[in-house]
Amino acid sequence: MTRPEAQAESLCAAIESRGARALRFPVLGIAPPEDASALEAVSARLDEFDLVFFVSPNAVDFALSYILARRDWPAGVAVATVGGGSERALRRHGFAHVLAPIEGFDSEAVLALPEFASAAIRGKRVLVLRGDGGRELLGEELTRRGAQVEHASVYRRFCPDANADELLKADRLDALVLTSSEGVRNLACMLGPDALAKLNAVTVFAPHPRIAGSAFDAGFRSVVETDSGDAGIVRGLEAGLGPVPAA
Fold it and tell me: What are the strands, taking DSSP E only, across 32-161?
C-alpha cells in the first residue's frame, strides 16, 4: 500500500480483514505549506467567494484546520469536492451540504455536474484549495465557462526518503496498489532503475486510467485498473488475485 501514511489505514484494514497482509510503503509525503501566507490571505477573504472547491481530503483537513481555528465559515459560501473521502472529510468538519459527483472521481466528473455548467457557473467566484501543483483542468475549464477562479496551496507534497529494501526483501509481493500518478513517479525515483526492474513483474492495481497509464510508462508490465475508492480497489484485488488461501 503506497498511499501517504495517514490515509492508508482504512484500505490496509479492509485488505487485512480478508486474510491478506498489507505492507505499508508510502511513496508520497504530505505536510503543511512552508509559507501559509496564501492560505492566510484567502481565509480573510472567504466572504468574497460563491464556492470553495477542495481537491482532496488533505486539502479539506489542512485548509479547514487553519481556517476554522481563526474564523467561522461564511454562511453563503458553498463547498464542493470530488471523491467519497473528501466528502466525508467535509462532513466531519460540519458541512451538511457538499456538492460532489455521485459517480466519477476526477475533474471531468465535477465539470459534468449541472452546477458547473456554463449557465450556472458564469460570473461566480470560485476558490480552489489544493496542494502545490496538481492538474489545471478544473480551473482552466471553469474560467472558460465564465467563472472567476483563484487557487491557493494549502499543503505540499514531497517524495519520502525511504529504504526500498522493505519492498525488495518482502517474502512475497503479489500486488502493488498505486493511487496517484505522482506516487508512481516517486516510487520509480525511490527504487531506482535496477530495483524497479526487479519489481516490474508485480501486478499494479490502480483506481484511475491516468494512474494505470503512468504505471505502464514506469515499466510495470501488468497493470489492473480498478474502480475508485477503497471498496473499488479491494474488489479489484479480489478479482485479480483471487481469495486468500486458508492457512
Answer: 51-54, 78-81, 125-131, 148-158
What is the tens place of the pLDDT at every residue in 154-179? 999 888 887 777 788 777 889 999 98
Strands (E), the chain: 29-31, 51-54, 78-81, 125-131, 148-158, 175-177, 203-206, 223-225
In this prediction, residues 219-233 reach a mean pLDDT of 90
pTM, whole model, 2 decimals? Answer: 0.78
Over residues 64-82, the pLDDT tens digits come to: 999 999 999 999 999 999 9
pLDDT band at 120 (very low <50, low <70, confident <90, very high): very high
Cβ–Cβ under 8 Å, residues 128 and 42: no
For residue 197, is pLDDT > 50? yes
Q: Which of 121, 120, 99, 97 is nearest to 110 (CA)?
A: 99
* End-to-end Cα, the chain, rounded Å: 22
Cell triple for 234: 479491494
Among residues 54, 50, 55, 43, the alpha carbon closest in space to that of 122 is found at 50
d(CA 247, CA 94): 44
In a 3-state reduction of DSSP, which class is residue 19? coil
Any residues with CB less than 8 A from the CB of 47 and at least 6 apart, and which? 74, 76, 77
